[in-house]
């Protein structure tokens, strides 16, 4: 049986009335939640891109014909020069901006190899979950930040990272 989220996504892509309600394209985004020593990796968006200067999690847009998991692995390699293992889906949600709709898929990932480098961002840093809400993130990420800050303690993060 399909989840409520999956049913909503199917309607977004296949129901003409639902599609007309939206402005602009539908963009699927894979998000990597990478944990190390009780902290989560975040990156800062470069100037000259959509939502410049805001913080975000590593990840990016799914290419046509690509699975969301393949997208996540590719984006982490392109953005950080690193390889991760996808552990589990943590959160999914769609968000309507004025000019586009984004569908976010956030996965816990384990860092396997590579020296982390901000290849596609202006900086990266590790931050405690309870400090996530102090950084400026895109509005679409707000529910994810709240869930991470609320549900994850130092002990539970260390078990994941």
UniProtKB/TrEMBL annotation:
Span of domain Nudix hydrolase: 24-150
Protein origin, superkingdom: Bacteria
One of the protein's GO biological processes: DNA replication
Keywords in alphabetical order: DNA damage, DNA repair, DNA replication, Hydrolase, Magnesium, Metal-binding, Mutator protein
GO MF, one example: 8-oxo-GDP phosphatase activity
SUPFAM superfamilies registered for this protein in UniProt: Nudix
Pfam families: NUDIX_4
Catalytic activity: 8-oxo-dGTP + H2O = 8-oxo-dGMP + diphosphate + H(+); 8-oxo-GTP + H2O = 8-oxo-GMP + diphosphate + H(+)
Enzyme class: hydrolase
Enzyme Commission number: 3.6.1.55
Keyword DNA repair part of the UniProt annotation: yes
Keyword DNA repair among record annotations: yes
Needed cofactors: Mg(2+)
Protein family: Belongs to the Nudix hydrolase family.
Identification of the protein by name: 8-oxo-dGTP diphosphatase
Lineage: Bacteria, Pseudomonadati, Nitrospirota, Nitrospiria, Candidatus Troglogloeales
């Amino acid at each position: 049986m399909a989840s409520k989220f999956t049913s909503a996504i199917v309607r977004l892509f296949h129901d003409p009335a639902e599609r007309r309600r939206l402005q602009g394209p539908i963009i699927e985004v894979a998000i990597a939640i990478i944990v190390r020593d009780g902290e989560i990796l975040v990156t800062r968006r470069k100037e000259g891109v959509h939502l410049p200067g805001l913080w975000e999690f590593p990840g990016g847009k799914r290419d046509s014909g690509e699975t969301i998991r393949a997208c996540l692995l590719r984006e982490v390699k392109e953005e950080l020069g690193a390889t991760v293992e996808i552990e589990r889906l943590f959160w999914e949600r769609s968000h309507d901006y004025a000019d586009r709709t984004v569908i976010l898929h956030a996965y816990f990932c384990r860092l396997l190899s590579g020296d982390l480098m901000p290849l596609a961002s202006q900086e990266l840093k590790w931050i405690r979950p309870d400090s996530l809400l102090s950084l400026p993130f895109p509005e679409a990420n707000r529910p994810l930040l709240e869930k991470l800050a609320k549900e994850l303690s130092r002990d539970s993060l260390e078990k994941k990272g």
